[in-house]
Design a protein that fits this description.
Layout lengths: L7 H14 L5 E2 L1 E11 L5 E3 L18 E9 L6 E2 H9 L4 E4 H4 L6 H30 L13 E3 L10 H12 L9 E4 L2 E2 L5 E2 L4 H10 L4 E5 L14 E5 L2 H8 L9 E3 L7
Parallel strand pairs: 4-8, 8-11, 11-12, 12-13
Antiparallel strand pairs: 1-5, 2-4, 2-6, 3-7, 9-10
Length: 273
Amino acid sequence: MSLRFSQTPRIVKLLLAFTLVVPLVIPVNYVLINPGEGTPLFPKMLNIASPTSESSKSWKSYPANGQMYLLSIWVTNPESKIFGHQVLTCWAQRDCVVIPRSVVYEKNTDDKAEQAVGKKEMKQSQSAALTATKGLFEKYYPNIDLTDLKDSHLKISLRNTGGPSGGLIFSLGISELLSPDDLLQGRKIAATGTISAKGEVGAIGGVEEKIVAARKAKAEIIFISKENCSEIPESVSGLGVIAVSTLDQAYKALREPKISNFQGVQGCTNLDS
């Protein structure tokens, strides 16, 4: 007597394999976000040129005693093809984030358009940072006249980075170079947040990833916007996080000599340590 075996189990296996494997090798509509790096401002990235004529009001640039870091995150481009297996790998990594593409990018945008927007936003943030710094100096250094200091005097060397999130660190960097006071006091400081011409510090995306970047750069302090307090992890180690609403608050914190002696969070009512 011969035995006959059903082919159903084999078909089921093939269907199961198809269901599990195919999504891993086809593009999916997601964006991947990873921590970037901390780029040092001094001495190469940020410089302030001297007055262009004798008739201009003068200012003096001082050497930085310490370092400040512009923080970045890595975000896949709108035209990048993201496959299912990359999403799974990202989910398995502690510092990687998966976000629907529609949350980050407009429907019909492309790499070129996003790069142009990012570049424009960064230029605007640099201009706002200078204006905000002028307002700060009118309050704390009335004898230093920055009236003739223009955007063109700022020498910023930075590639492949865009967006408005560098506004706060640019303001602090300009303040460090132009202030006769030693604001850094030999420390490593990072900051992320938008800046308005009035010195208001606004929220940015990727706060957790930027805290990781600050830690990798061995920064002692990172300044963020108070609007981002709800996105800060409950446990922060390896550096201090200071949440501020204005450039003035960040400036005052920098002048506090003991500010680098703590780790944890200050300025967030839900997380103050």
